[in-house]
Write a structure and sequence with these properties.
five-stranded parallel sheet; Transcription Regulator spoIIAA; 18 strands; disordered N terminus; binds iron/sulfur cluster; 4 domains; five-stranded mixed barrel; elongated; alpha/beta; Rossmann fold
Length: 450
């Protein structure tokens, strides 16, 4: 991990041993955000009062302490610094927003047993003042990194349109490492897309951590896609990664109306148990996800659905995992990415109780993968006998073979001349495997002209 400048965290603990324990956990979850514990509130960057309600006049004591801290906050502001004040524990639970009303110097309140929410609350408080939180997380290969923008030497390219995330899934570091959602202006994207098309690119994949939350000067992602679909030569448009809650009606409609928008959608669901989805802070239920997929399929019946899954999230019991399998059976995925939950220090979920045993996670992942693999094979097998338009991208491993992608993002191998690279050609699919399809050129004269 890289070194970040140490920020000063002062925690005052009132009451019972449980609160002492919680204060230690708060220090743990805040460490990756660069906070180190100090024993004097004067000059601190973050002051947490971890309160207790049991003793008489406890609430009044907290307000009186807040009076002193407020003065320190004022002194720090005069010196050009910023102090964030948080009230945690039982008084926060009992008084809630009343605390912020009575003492406006307080920036946030967090109830007992909710210390794991502190990173999110602090990140949100910082964003509200336009400040960027410097975090010290190791890069997360699963969620943090967008695919690198591809050097254009072929016919497909990635194009970043959006970065950052406001969703704060409790397992994920992106909202801390990448900051809030930010969209590139549509004009800049269109310019880049035109340049790509001029260089021979026929397919772009619009990239963003929350790509369907795209909001560029009045443009939703659907409007952006419609704009790009008018660019001559740009025949295929894809986008990734999407959040179910940002799947707007206009984007769903675009899937039914725009031939350039490919019938493939990566729409992570993560789990099938509402209890786990809530703990993940996903803001959708299993039922709402299934209904959403139904709507998308009503607009584009042949769409290939892809998903992300996490197994063994804290608190996941056998019954919860069974609901993930049920959801997979109900939706039917053409492809998927599945992972065992792994603790990321500083993320809220890493501090949650009920961490699942590694062997249990491994066993669940095996069962999930067996089901997802079977679905992927079945989806691929359905293509046999059909004629699919394939955008050929490169030579295959075998002599005379070329490889491209179907509209559903399947790799398709066929025998054909190199002159077809960069072209969209009808291919009759003759065989299927888990990862690819094999076929022959529908128009055999293309072979003869080689
Ligand atoms: S939506 Fe969730 S998983 Fe995706 S980047 Fe944001 S916080 Fe991470």
């Amino acid at each position: 991990m890289s070194e970040t400048p140490q920020k000063r965290l002062y925690i005052k603990t009132y009451g019972c041993q449980m609160n002492v324990y919680d204060s230690e956990r708060m220090a743990d979850v805040l460490r990756p955000l660069g906070y180190g514990v100090v024993d004097d509130p004067e000059g601190a960057d973050l002051v947490v009062l971890n309160t207790c309600h049991i003793r008489e006049k406890a609430t009044e004591k907290v307000y009186s302490e807040l009076g002193y801290i407020k003065q320190m906050k004022g002194r720090k502001a005069q010196a050009g610094g910023k102090m964030t004040i948080a009230v945690a524990g039982c008084v926060a639970q009992a008084e809630g927003k009343e605390i912020m009303h009575r003492q406006p110097a307080v920036d946030l309140v967090v109830g007992p047993q909710a210390y794991h929410q502190l990173p999110e609350l602090i990140a949100r408080a910082h964003r509200a003042t336009g400040e960027r939180l410097s975090a010290d997380f190791a890069a997360d290969e699963k969620f943090d990194a967008l695919p690198a923008e591809r050097q254009v030497n072929g016919v497909t390219a990635f194009l970043t349109v959006q970065e950052g995330c406001d969703k704060f899934c409790t397992f994920c570091v992106v909202p801390y490492t990448r900051g809030g959602e930010w969209s590139r202006p549509p004009e800049a994207i269109e310019d880049e897309a035109r340049r790509l098309a001029d260089q021979g690119v026929r397919e772009v994949t619009l990239l963003g951590q929350n790509v369907n939350a795209y909001d560029g000067g009045g443009h939703t992602l659907a409007k952006l896609v419609r704009r790009l679909a008018r660019i001559p030569g740009l025949d295929r448009i894809r986008y990734t990664t999407s959040h179910p809650r940002d799947m707007g009606e206009d984007l769903i409609a675009a899937h039914g109306e725009l031939p350039q928008l490919m019938p493939y959608l990566h729409l992570p669901v993560q789990a099938g148990s509402d209890k786990i989805l809530k703990a993940m802070n996903r803001d959708h239920t299993a039922e709402s996800y299934v209904r959403l997929v139904e709507k998308i399929r009503a607009a584009r019946p042949d769409i290939a659905m892809s998903g992300d899954f996490i197994v063994g999230f804290p608190g996941e019991r056998d019954g919860d995992f069974d609901k993930t399998l049920e959801l997979v059976r109900e939706v039917g995925f053409a492809s998927a990415f599945s992972f065992k939950y792994s603790r990321r220090p500083g993320t809220p979920a890493s501090a949650m109780p009920g961490q699942v045993d590694e062997a249990v996670k491994a066993e669940r992942l095996d069962r999930l993968n067996a089901l997802l693999d079977a679905q992927q094979k079945a989806f691929n097998a359905l293509q046999v006998g059909k004629v699919l338009p394939v955008l050929f991208e490169k030579k295959g491993r075998n002599p005379g073979q070329i490889v491209g992608r179907s509209p559903y993002l399947q790799a398709v191998h066929a025998v054909g001349p190199d002159s077809l690279l960069g072209q969209i050609v009808p291919v009759r699919i003759e065989s299927s495997a888990k990862m690819s399809l094999g076929g022959v050129l529908e128009n055999q004269s293309l072979l003869e002209s080689a």
